[in-house]
Amino acid sequence: MREVNWAGNVVYTAEHVQRPASVDELRELLARAPRIHVLGSRHSFNTIADSSELVSLRGLPCELDVDRAAGTVTCSGAITYGELARELAAERLALANLGSLPHISLAGSVSTATHGSGDRCGNLATAVAGLELVTSTGELIRARRGDPDFDGLVVGLGALGAITRVTLDVEPAYEVSQVVYEGLSWQALDESFDELTAAGYSVSVFTRWGDEAGQLWVKRRVNAEIAAPRELFGARAAAAQVHPIPGGDPAACTPQLGAAGPWHDRLSHFRLEFTPSAGEELQSEYLLARADARAAIEALRRLAPQIRPLLHIGEIRTVAADELWMSPEYRRDAVGLHFTWLREERRVESLLAQIEAALAPLHPRPHWGKLFLARADAIAPRYERHADFVALQARLDPRGAFCNDWLAERVLGGAPGGA
What is the DSSP string of 264-304? Predict the structure, then answer.
């Protein structure tokens, strides 16, 4: 049987996955493979990671190297955020933020600019202080923040090489409390958007795009002097643990109800030991300039009758700007409009055509690991450093070993192997 992604909607072309046990073995493998791609935790919903040959880096050495003076940790790119969090907790250290679920791999997440939420929080790639990359010639490259091309290497979309080691910024461990507020109105979201997203360290609105906006999830860094309010913007604190998807098991979610706990046990929405979100699902997300949040939300509300029948749940969240070339937050604070769909791909793609047309005047940047329809010719003008990234890809991978049909169509332009 061929390999499939986490959602089961992608069957990978390769008939098996190579699992090198050392970096030297990986270098030899990459240098001889005509076409190859690294397969991480398989949480992409498109074929960004597909190739005729696949390689897993889970067999490489995974030692953690903590540098307290520099405030960093260096680890395997194949480690998941849940695994890394446990290691950091033992060192009484923390990351600044996490994504919605801890099951995803480090290298895959930063390569696609996966993110959590928070006005002052960048996507997960912004924590990268250095990386080690093996190119398709077998060359081992090490780069650190501030080096030439570093800002192009981090969100590399898997098109530049295999990320073997990553160095991340860390800080002293901290505690977080989480409160879910129910019954948030669209009026409150519209009139108080900036105040609402600033109400916590990490804030998300879960919505069914119905008559009301829905649930307001507020995660706060613990301050013993400030208690979480029981009402916020007209929404009332839930009296019991809840799941963002109607009918979902609340036990799968990280602890709520305002109880303080370790950062890694609150910043993600879902617990490591449970299947996250709906399980059998598809996902899409569009990142827009924060200044366009209200216009984007209004455009989607007009499509609500078409959206709701295919939707498990939607999420609205914010992400801080950065300098990473292919980051959807490149030089603009962003609002993310996320959709967790039923696994009906043809119907979803038909609807995405309507959604992308409605958002087009606002120049949305899609999440690289999720479903979208836009092609490279439409995406390129939305990224100021797009041409620089294409040139970097051609230089590091001149024979196009890491390029596939998806990357050619959606990012690089032209046939696999470059523009």
Answer: GGTSSSB-TTS--TTSS-EEEEEEEEGGGHHHHHHHHHHTH
